[in-house]
Queue: 2 jobs
Job 1
Amino acid sequence: MPGEFALIDRIRDRAGRRDDVVRGIGDDAAVLALPAGHELVVTCDTLVAGVHFPEETLPADIGYKALAVNLSDLAAMAAAPAWCTLAMTLPDSDDAWLDDFLDGFLALADEHGVSLVGGDTTAGPLTITVTAHGLVPAGQALLRSSARAGEDIWVTGTLGDAAGALAQWRQRGPASAKLRYRLDRPTPRVQAGVALRGLASAGIDVSDGLAADLGHVLAASGVGARVDLGRLPCSRTLADHFEENRRWELQLGGGDDYEICFTAPAANALAIEQAMAALDLPATVVGQLEAEPGLRLLTPEGGAWSPPATGYQHFQGGHA
């Protein structure tokens, strides 16, 4: 089996390089050139086999998702991705597995102009950690703490597909390939995040379920919210496989959507709709922010509704 340095060489040989990478893989650290007038946005996510993805997930899908979840964080901050590092803990040094992993990882990196500039490799249970770096014009990053009472609450795309796939996987019964694709290959809404600069007031990516992630915005901003369950955007596939109440559970508490939940003044609604239409990306107003603290969920008939769970938390049960 190839050793650690052979693995690093294999990764370096396949990694692309941006013009603003002064020094990439090969030194003790990367040297990167920051453009004038921009701020650096940094995020880090770890994916663990059996927690963040089923053990049998294809290596190309693991590679894709490992980067996608980080790009999603940058998108929620309105940052354009630039560079990343990759730390891999691998059970063994399998060239074929690594090449397949890099197929997924680097395809997404190339799509978004991201350079892999460093990382680490070690032996152990399969664990992937990515740190991603993005750029945003000074003062334009979307924060969780900037939402205000009276603003609209929006979400991009649809919610619940990935959680639906995970529910089907756990039941070991019939499964939808479309739902599973949303679990294995989430789409980071990078272009949407950039388009929301100057239009949205606050943002967060939906990784742990809408109820939990919106709750972080409410807590940081000191506001409350009303969400209308009948407005939650749902794919036709999810509707075909789950009844209404179960869909709400998946959309609010399931996680792994990697859509952007953002808030904005009602006066910006038309501009937001036009910006999202230019990207061919649906975006839906699902509720409003209120001065009274707390999250209130209303059925289409106007009644209050409480989900069995509000979102995923580590150390309280695993995803997969």
Job 2
Amino acid sequence: MGSVIDENRQPLLFASANCLPENKIERREDEDDKDLKTRVWIETKKLWHIVGPAIFSRIGTYTMNIITQGFAGHIGEVELAAITISNTVIVGLSFGLILGMASALETLCGQAYGAKKHHMLGIYMQRSWIVITLCCILLLPMYIFATPILKALGQPDDVAELSGLVALWFIPLQFSFAFQFTIQRFLQSQLKTAVIAWISLAVLAIHTAISWLFVYKLNLGIVGAAVALDISWWLLVIGLFIYAACGGCPETWSGFSIQAFSGLWEFFRLSAAAGVMLW
């Protein structure tokens, strides 16, 4: 008898559940839509807080290269071709490899920061400096012998020789990559991205002034344009390091440590794998 009563009640229960007022159903749907929009907006703000300054800094460094090529173009066609080839072919090859090697720091610093091992971020960054600097030394023959390499690739003699000269002056630029890329990832893992954008903006303005001074006022020609780019990239390194080491990252930077020289081989293997994947 009880089962009969239960069976008779079930349709009534379903009917009462399905007979909610339409205004309440619409209200629930509106609340769900508002909750979804709120969550999307919050996540979007968090995302752009990280990627926005990173995008701006990358655009700033790319713009510095464009400015350098623009000043070289005012000197002459051969100079424009030389600095473009040196920046695109010679520097571009090392740029991609070093950027990829530095990207390994994102994983290590992110894990250490999430595990609250804050002091390890600075040690990982110093290990990355050592490994990537050694890699830059191994890449030096590409800069030193740029002229015969470009001639073998079919470039005209005058362009290849001037490109080789510019490549020699770009050697300091290559070593700046080892520090600038790693410090950026060190700061990004701590969500300290705004300082990267502000420093990039300041250096971009300084680079324009230095290029104008060296090329037009001091008449240093294409060498002056290359040196201006070297100085600007190292100013980025100095600015980011001053922020990180002088109070900007008190938990993650405790000074230079001898621990940075331990585990270099494992660190090299991880960095090399990341560099080859991006390269």
